[in-house]
Design goal:
Blueprint lengths: L1 E5 L7 H4 L2 H8 L4 E5 L13 E2 L9 E2 L1 H12 L7 E12 L2 H10 L2 E5 L9 H6 L2 E4 L9 H12 L28 E4 L2 E4 L9 H8 L8
Helix pairs in contact: 4-6
Length: about 220
């Protein structure tokens, strides 16, 4: 899968892409990440891409031309049926596990437009046929964090990225609580023990416990 990220701040992704699972996915060529800075697509000698909003109001808005040029550079001549363009908005479609699962099975290219300031000229969304998406009911400074969330969530669903398919939490039985050694943790003179069912060896009872159901009497 190829992630195309349109952002004024590509360096914001450096540390995240350079660590852990995402880094290994890039090294193993399971994913590719390409950045497109709208500043590289404006004729303005100062590389300015923000303008005052029509109708008044605070802040500045990202101009449409430079963002569109960056987006079409990303899209190129690719099969549009395999390209998903995402436009971040607080009131957009809620990004969740089902969205990520569908996207990884349907598309080869994910184009994400990261807004800044007061947002991106709305005509960009119309021209690109982009889908407005949100990662939660709150407002962030820019679209870079949502882009990282989506990239991470989709990447871990691609075959071969994780060591085992069962490592994807939604595809295995996993309670909200997990435990490891020691069996009895002594902390500030108090003892905290692992639930006995997890030490029983009874896999049926363990699965029931993880699902939140009743288990056999101990």
């Amino acid at each position: 899968m190829h992630f195309h990220i349109i952002t004024l701040f590509p360096a914001a992704f450096d540390s995240y892409l350079g660590e852990s699972i995402v880094k290994r996915a890039i090294e193993r060529k399971k994913i590719q990440v390409t950045f497109y800075n709208p500043r590289d697509y404006t004729p303005d000698k100062w590389r300015r891409v923000d303008r005052r909003p029509y109708g008044g109001g605070p802040g500045m808005v990202l101009e449409p031309e430079s963002v569109l040029k960056a987006a079409f550079k990303a899209i190129g001549r690719k099969d549009r049926a395999k390209v998903k363009v995402i436009f971040f908005e607080p009131g957009g479609t809620q990004f969740d596990t089902a969205y990520a699962e569908h996207a990884t099975q349907t598309y080869k290219h994910i184009v994400m437009i990261c807004g800044r300031y007061e947002g991106v000229d709305a005509r960009v969304k119309t021209i690109l046929g982009a889908e407005a998406v949100t990662i939660g009911p709150y407002t962030l400074t820019g679209g870079e964090l949502p882009a990282m969330v989506i990239l991470d969530c989709m990447t871990r669903r691609l075959p071969g990225v994780l060591g085992h398919d069962e490592s994807i939490e939604e595809r295995r039985i996993a309670g909200s609580d997990v435990y490891t050694r020691p069996e009895v943790l002594v902390w500030q003179k108090k003892k905290y023990s692992v639930p006995k069912v997890l030490l029983s060896g009874n896999h049926a009872d363990i699965d029931k416990w993880k699902e939140g159901g009743m288990v056999s009497p101990e």
